[in-house]
Amino acid sequence: MATIRDVARHVGVSPATVSRVINGVPGFSADTRERVEAAVAELGYEPDTLARGLRTMQSAVIGVLATAVSDALASQVMSGIESAARSRGYTVMLGRAGLGAEHAPSYLRSFKTYRAAGVVVISSAITGDMRRIAGARLPLMAVAIRNGDVFPSLAIDDEQAAYDGTRRLLELGHREIGLLAGDESSMLVNAPRERGYQHAMAEADAPTLVERGNSLYDSAPPALGRLLERAPRLSAVFALSDEMGAAAINELQRRGRRVPEDVSVLGFDNTRTSQHVHPALSTVAQPLERMGEQAVFGLLDGTWRSRIFEHRLIERGSTASAPSPAPSRKRNLP
Amino acid sequence: MATIRDVARHVGVSPATVSRVINGVPGFSADTRERVEAAVAELGYEPDTLARGLRTMQSAVIGVLATAVSDALASQVMSGIESAARSRGYTVMLGRAGLGAEHAPSYLRSFKTYRAAGVVVISSAITGDMRRIAGARLPLMAVAIRNGDVFPSLAIDDEQAAYDGTRRLLELGHREIGLLAGDESSMLVNAPRERGYQHAMAEADAPTLVERGNSLYDSAPPALGRLLERAPRLSAVFALSDEMGAAAINELQRRGRRVPEDVSVLGFDNTRTSQHVHPALSTVAQPLERMGEQAVFGLLDGTWRSRIFEHRLIERGSTASAPSPAPSRKRNLP
DNA sequence: TTGTAAGCGTTATCAA
DNA sequence: TTGATAACGCTTACAA
C-alpha cells in the first residue's frame, strides 16, 4: 500500500503538500494540485485512516448500539444510519447491547477508543452510566425512545400517537378495544403508549382492557387469549408493536374470527412485519429510517438536540368499522 | 483520556513495561504486574486502538458487506457475526453494498484502510474486482452463497436442499408443484435451487411449473397468480425465499384456498419471517447465525476455506398431504 | 526483569 | 506556495 511519502516522492514535493492537496487545505498551486492528484490515482493511494485518526484525534466512524441486531425496528433505523453515514464519508460500527444493555459499556469503551464521532442508541435508554463511560468527547443520541430531557433523542410522541390510534378505533365505532402492551423492561416507550390509550378510552367513557406481552410475536397469542377471555365480544385490538399485531391477526383468524369484519387490529411502528400479514396490518408509523438519518446528521453537525417526529396513522386492511352489534337476546324480548 | 505514559509514570516504570503487561508479553515480575494493573484500573486507562493499529498494522475490526441492512436474512447472519466478533474482542463495521454491489468497492477500501482483519460478504458474490481491491492483506469470505471454488464461502448445498424440499412435497403426494423462483440477479443462489427442483420433478415424472419473483414479499402475489393461471389445480407451492412463501400463504388464503388443506406452501431460508404467518411456514432452513459465526472464526483463524453446511427441513403448519383429487368428471362418466 | 529509542502514516506548526 | 519537523499513542528490537 502506497503511503503519502510515496506520492510525495513520485511528484517531487513534500508529504505536507500532498496532505494539503488531499484535504483541501489552502496552500498549493493549481499545477502541483494536478500533479499530486495524478500521482494519487496512479499509485492508488488511500490515506491511512488509523494514522490520520491518531493524528487528528478523531475518526470517521459512527457507533450504533442496538438491543438486538436482527430486530426489524433496529434494522430499519440502521438502514437510515448507514445511508446518512455513507453520504458523509463515515462508516458504521455495530454493537449489540443486549436486552439489559449489558454489553453497552464495553461497546461504548470500544467506540471511544476508536474515536468515533458519536453513537446512536436504538430504542433503549441512555443511562448515566453510559454517559459517564462515553465521556465528553463522545456524544450519544437515542432514537425511537425518549425520556423528557434526560437524554437527547429523536422520537415520536408515543402518548399522542397511541391516543390518536385509539381515537381512530373509537371513531370507527369500536368500544371494546383490547390493548396488547409490551413488558415492563421497555417502559420508556410502553408507559406513554398505554397512557395514550387510557386517555382516549376514558374520554370516550369506554372500558379499558390491557394484557401484556413482550413486544415479540410469540408473546401475543397467549396475551390475546387472555384478552378474549375477559372480553369475548371485543371488536378491536390495539397492539403496541407490529409483531404483536401480526400475531394477533393470525391468532384471531385461527380462532375463527375474521379480520377486520369481526375484529379490527391496529399495530405500532410500521416495520416491514406489518406488510407481511394478510390482511396487511394498519399501524401507527414512526419514520424510523429518517430518524436514523437525522441522528447521524445531528451527531456530526453538533446539534444533538432532542426532536419529536411526526407519527402517522397508516390504514391498511386490518381495520374497519365496528360490526353492528348482534341483537342481544334480552333486549329483544318484548 | 489517560495514555500509556500516564500509567507508566504513575507506577514508576517505563511505557514498554506497561505495554508488556497489557498485552501479556513475557518480561515482567508478578509484582510490577499487579502495580500496573492497579494503575490501569485507577486511571481508567484504555489502550488507544488507533495508535495500536497503526503500530501493529492491523486492527480488531471485522467488516461486513450486506446487500441491504434491513434484510431479514442478512440480519440473522449479522447476529452471528456480532456474537463471534465480540467473543474475540473484535468490533463489526457495517457496509451496505446495494443490490448491484455498487458500494462494495468503496466500503472495501474503507475496511482496508481501517486494517480490518477480514470481511464477510453476505449473500452476494465476491467478484474479481472486489478481490483485487481488497488485496492480499484483507481476506474475504462469502456467506449464504457459493460458486464452486471461485471464492471461499460458507453455504448450504442449495441444489440438494431444493431437491430435498421438492422430494418432501412429492412424498406428501403432491404432483402439481409450482416454483416461486427468485430473479436473475441472484442467480448464484437461485439457479442451483431451481435445478434441485427440476431434478426432483423430473425423477418423479411430474410437470414443472416455474414463475419468477424477486425474492421479496411483494413480488410473490403476481407470480403466484401466474402460477395459478397456468395450473389452477396445483396443490403445492415451493417458494425460494421465506418472504415469497409468506406472501404465497396470504395470497392463497385471500383467494379462498386453505393452507395447507388445499395447497401446501414451502419456504426457504428459515428467516424469522417464516414464523410470522399463519399457518407458520414450513421451510428449508439454513443455519444463518452459525454461518455468520463461523465466517468470522475462519477469517480470524486464517482457515478461510469453503465449507458446506447442513440444511434442514422444518415442517410447520403450511405443508400437508396432497388433497385427494376431486373426482374428475370425465373419468366418472360410465 | 526492565528501559531506551525508533518508527507506524498522518497532519499541524513554523519558518522559508 | 512550499518544506522540515514534531507529535499523536503505541509496540518492539535492542541494550542494559
3D structure, described in words:
2 copies of one chain form a homodimer. Chain A is an alpha/beta fold and 334 residues long. Chain A has 3 domains: 4-47, Orthogonal Bundle (434 Repressor (Amino-terminal Domain)), CATH 1.10.260; 55-155 and 289-309, Rossmann fold (3-Layer(aba) Sandwich), CATH 3.40.50.2300; 158-287, Response regulator (Rossmann fold). Helices cover 43% and strands 16% of the residues of chain A. In chain A, helix 9 (187-203) links the parallel strand 6 and strand 7 (210-212). In chain A, helix 1 crosses helix 3 (30-43). The radius of gyration of chain A is 26 Å and the shape is elongated. The N and C termini of chain A lie far apart (94 Å). Residues 328-334 of chain A have low confidence and may be disordered. Chains A and B meet through helix 4, helix 5, strand 2, helix 6 and helix 11 of A and helix 4, helix 5, strand 2, helix 6 and helix 11 of B. Strand 2 of chain A pairs antiparallel with strand 2 of chain B. Chain A binds a DNA duplex (16 and 16 nucleotides) through helix 2 and helix 4. Chains A, B: InterPro entries: HTH_LacI (IPR000843), LacI/GalR-like_sensor (IPR046335), Lambda_DNA-bd_dom_sf (IPR010982), Peripla_BP_I (IPR028082).
